Amino acid sequence: RVPSAYMGGRRLADGAIVAEKPRWPRYLATGALLATLLATQPSHSSLLEHLESLAEHPSGLLGKLSSLASSLHASVGAESASYGLFRLGSLSGNHYLGILGTWIKLPAFAAVLPSSRRARGSAAASAASYMCTSSFEPAEQLVLLSVLLHLLWLTRPRCMVRHAVCSLDAVQRGRVWTLLTANASHAAFPHLLHNCIHLLQLGPLLHATLGCSDLLALMLTAALASSAASLLWNGVLGGRPKEGSLGASGVAMAMVAANAALYPRALVHVYGLELPAPHAALLYLVVDVVASSSGHGGGGVDASAHAGGAAVGYALARRWQRGLDLFPSF
Predict the structure, then answer these.
(1) What is the pTM for the complete model shown?
(2) 219 to each of 141, 254, 271, how far by Cα in Å?
(3) Mind listing the pLDDT tens digit for each residue in 205-238?
(4) H or E stretch including 190?
């Protein structure tokens, strides 16, 4: 039993037994992906534009220097090199990946393990503090976990279908952990790549604004909300209890919506496009609705999960704007 299809967005999967498909569509899709990567490799000038936009971003991600000083520093100190399908850039010890017309900051691998400092307080506070002592930001941790689970899809697909696809049937059978594990589960590489780009693009901006604990709370709540929305829409209202979903798109949509709420005038650069943050969020939701209507059962985007994540991201960001703690226990 394997999910029937995974391409982009948080995916539907009913776990039905399907006949083996011909290999040529897979080869064609791989060729199309490679051609797209080659055609959309960012230029060095686009890296400078990306760094300039970060310098002007109100989150202060690049530090306390003025935007003009940061832009001048980037124009002089930034370096990049082409590697065929992608481009790698660097500035002041930070490394950036240019792929599909988008620049994202790569995680720092200087210290993989968290600090040995023990956190005190409740179990939730201890877990959050432990995760926030890692050299990886919360979005980077989710990306690394997603890559790990993707490798398991390649080697243990039956196990992943059982433990990393969220459906009403799975929850009713006691596998409640799928409410969370499905959010880091990607069976197809394009699905994984799409979500990782969004997580690594918006994660650092929101981390600079909210801090580690609040961003972690937002991401965990969005994960649960996207799973709950999928269960309600597909399992309860749709009468399809075995139809499940997987992917980090719900969390990514929460970040998109939170960024739009916090910085409505900021520009979002993704896939070679430059859009105001609210317009980007609206565009994503429209694409989700169109994509979900094009497939049913195992083939469509789970727009309900995306909407659930986006709603939570927007609501929590607005709460943070009013000066309220997202979750006082964190």
Answers:
(1) 0.75
(2) 11, 7, 23
(3) 899 888 888 899 999 999 999 999 999 998 898 8
(4) helix 189-210
